[in-house]
């Protein structure tokens, strides 16, 4: 039997934002500039000061080796075969980050710390100085910071703070805000060429032409559509002396676009679900170890179902007693056309986690029961 309150164990927020058939959007939200992108960084480091929740030397020998090398660099010599360091207050971690375009030396960026050993929690530890490398094996940033300690019994699943993000359901991952300092910037040839390409986030020849027309309205004959994905901007350096101001002006221009395709955004860390339209769900069956959900749009398909299974869940009307008390098999059958928010509201009553939400929506999309684009995000 499930607990009465779902929100006592997990919190999922569902927002459904309904738009009109068209809306205005700025060009910088619809496009990116070719060659201007983030660069991935990675590094190996140590988290120390853990309250007995770190790696075991026997099962994670690389942690001992890393700690041995660190102490040796600091002038502390110990026998390499000495296992006295197995105090479980140290954990090996991989530190990842994204180097923003045009980032300069001295700026700070966020880092994500993930355990690679057998530690049970990184909570309460301190990430030691960790160099972050690019694909060229050069150091672009240095990370260091503290991971606060939490009483997991008294906090919600996602803790967001000004300086960190901690997920109590997975104690071996933490995001430290502004904990890495950029040491080296990436050289960019932006503005050195005679052309700049704007790439649409989603290829669409109609939107591409609208963007080109809007640019040409302010800068005569400055752009043309190269293909459904690219709008090329010709730079006349004599006419447009300040290219940066020109690009900034273009990116702030508004374009009227139509909402052609429904979209659902799911955050698998927080469980947040956002939709841009009413999305009707097709017939399908969802079977879990905790429940069964049958969606049958055709009422003729109900002939083989028992009376106990024939529950009507109309939009925004749910009967908890039918689900928890009169339904021993935890089987819910929907025989009316419903929106996706109805399905998600029912799933919430069965303690569905964010990972399960993502899995269910992805599977519904695969079998053709969810006519919408899925955007799965981690942050």
Automatic annotation (TrEMBL):
GO molecular function terms attached to this record: structural molecule activity
Which key words are in the record?
Bacterial flagellum, Cell projection, Cilium, Flagellum, Signal
Q: Where are the transmembrane segments?
A: none
Mind telling me which GO cellular component terms the entry cites? bacterial-type flagellum basal body, distal rod, P ring; outer membrane-bounded periplasmic space
Kindly give the Pfam families that the UniProt entry links to this protein. FlgI
InterPro entries from the xrefs?
Answer: Flag_FlgI (IPR001782)
Where found in the cell?
Bacterial flagellum basal body
An individual GO BP term: bacterial-type flagellum-dependent cell motility
| UniProt record similarity statement | Belongs to the FlgI family.
Annotated HAMAP family? FlgI (MF_00416)
Q: What is the role of this chain?
A: Assembles around the rod to form the L-ring and probably protects the motor/basal body from shearing forces during rotation.
Q: How does it assemble?
A: The basal body constitutes a major portion of the flagellar organelle and consists of four rings (L,P,S, and M) mounted on a central rod.
Would you tell me the protein name for this molecule?
Flagellar P-ring protein
- Give the species this sequence originates from: Buchnera aphidicola
């Amino acid at each position: 039997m499930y607990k009465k309150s779902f929100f006592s164990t997990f919190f999922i927020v569902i927002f459904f934002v309904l738009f009109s058939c068209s809306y205005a959007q700025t060009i910088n939200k619809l496009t990116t500039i070719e060659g201007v992108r983030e660069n991935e960084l990675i590094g190996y480091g140590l988290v120390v000061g853990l309250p007995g929740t770190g790696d075991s030397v026997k099962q994670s020998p690389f942690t001992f080796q890393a700690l041995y090398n660190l102490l040796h660099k600091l002038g502390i010599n110990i026998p390499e075969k000495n296992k006295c360091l197995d105090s479980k207050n140290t954990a090996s971690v991989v530190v990842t980050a994204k180097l923003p375009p045009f980032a300069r030396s001295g700026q700070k960026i966020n880092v994500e710390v993930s355990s690679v050993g057998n530690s049970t929690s990184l909570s309460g530890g301190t990430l030691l100085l960790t160099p972050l490398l690019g694909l060229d094996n050069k150091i672009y940033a240095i990370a260091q910071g503290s991971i606060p300690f939490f009483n997991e019994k008294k906090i919600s699943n996602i803790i967001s703070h000004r300086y960190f993000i901690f997920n109590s359901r997975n104690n071996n991952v933490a995001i430290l805000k502004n904990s890495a300092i950029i040491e080296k910037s990436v050289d960019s040839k932006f503005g050195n060429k005679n052309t700049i390409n704007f790439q649409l986030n989603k290829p669409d020849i109609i939107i591409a032409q609208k963007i080109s027309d809007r640019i040409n309205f302010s800068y005569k004959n400055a752009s043309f559509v190269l293909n459904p994905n690219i709008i090329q901007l010709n730079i006349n350096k004599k006419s447009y002396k300040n290219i940066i101001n020109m690009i900034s002006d273009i990116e702030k221009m508004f374009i009227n676009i139509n909402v052609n395709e429904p979209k659902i955004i799911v955050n698998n860390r927080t469980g947040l679900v956002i939709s841009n339209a009413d999305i009707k769900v097709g017939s399908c069956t969802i079977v879990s170890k905790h429940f069964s959900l049958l969606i049958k749009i055709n009422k003729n398909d109900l002939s083989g179902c028992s009376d106990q299974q024939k529950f009507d869940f109309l939009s925004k009307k749910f009967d908890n007693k039918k689900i928890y008390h009169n339904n021993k098999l935890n089987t819910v059958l929907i025989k009316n056309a419903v929106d996706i928010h109805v399905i998600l509201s029912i799933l919430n009553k069965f303690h569905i986690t964010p990972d399960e939400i993502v899995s269910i929506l992805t599977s519904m999309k695969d079998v053709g029961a969810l006519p919408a684009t899925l955007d799965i995000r981690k942050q």
